[in-house]
Design a protein that fits this description.
The chain has 256 residues and is mostly helical. The chain is built from 15 helices and no strands. The chain is elongated.
Length: 256
């Protein structure tokens, strides 16, 4: 009954009261894995992530194959930006949940965050091979492959998978248009690059009800990657000016 009360307090958004109640349960009955996990969840809801992890790690010692505990620890480490630890717990989950595609997808995405890009790409290729075109997350998998391939300078792979996404979504994917612009730029195709950047800006503004500054902010996120791959900063500034000028001309034409 006390435990049910604690669960209700957490659900109703009263984690501090839940923590106090759970401390009482632990004093009276001892600390089970489920109680420690629940306390960890309540602590997490109050932004006490370090304490939440301590509780969950204690719960893990009691039940090392409890997937709820392992998943919670991966989530907490993710909130702390500790991606090596996230990867460790995702791999534990994958061993226990062999058919869970969501976990298997998160592993390469986390590998990418810790710089293990080649390994991440291989795992995503495997997911692509095992997926069907009707899978709900198929476009997402294709996009991740294209993104990582681009970051590795594998332009042929990035281009092929981006084209797949655009074909499947009738050209209505702003991220894919932006990526295509980057690919064309790295290939030295300025016309193709500017055409795709313009399409990206128009679609992004339409889908996000934003203006050109919000689209350019998104475009600018890849600036360091492009410079690292040999694009001059002066060229990027010129491209930015051309995008703005084209947008202004389009606006004036629409108003006239």
């Amino acid at each position: 009954e006390s435990v049910a009360c604690c669960e209700l307090l957490i659900e109703l958004g009263h984690p501090r009261q839940a923590i106090a109640a759970l401390n009482g349960v632990i004093e009276r009955e001892g600390a089970s894995a489920s109680i420690l996990l629940m306390k960890g969840q309540a602590l997490s809801n109050t932004k006490q992530l370090a304490d939440a992890i301590i509780c969950a790690r204690s719960a893990e010692l009691l039940e090392p194959e409890n997937t709820d505990i392992l998943g919670f620890l991966a989530q907490c480490y993710g909130l702390q930006g500790r991606h090596e630890e996230v990867l460790e717990y995702l791999q534990k989950l994958a061993e226990l949940m062999t058919e869970d595609k969501r976990v298997r997808k998160l592993i390469p995405l986390t590998m990418n965050k810790v710089g293990r890009k080649e390994e991440a790409l291989k795992l995503l290729f495997k997911l692509d091979y095992e997926s069907t075109e009707n899978d709900e997350d198929y476009d997402e998998i294709l996009s991740h492959i294209a993104d990582i391939a681009l970051s590795l300078g594998k332009l042929d792979i990035a281009e092929r998978y981006t084209e797949k996404v655009l074909e499947r979504l009738d050209g209505k994917d702003a991220d894919a248009l932006l990526r295509t612009g980057h690919i064309k730029l790295l290939q030295g195709d300025w016309k193709g690059c500017l055409d795709n950047y313009e399409q990206f800006v128009n679609l992004y503004c339409k889908q996000h009800n934003g203006d050109i500054s919000s689209a350019l902010s998104q475009w600018n996120k890849d600036r360091d990657m492009l410079i690292e791959k040999g694009i001059k900063e002066s060229d990027l500034l010129l491209i930015r000016d051309i995008i703005i000028a084209d947008s202004d001309n389009s606006t004036q034409q629409a108003q006239s």
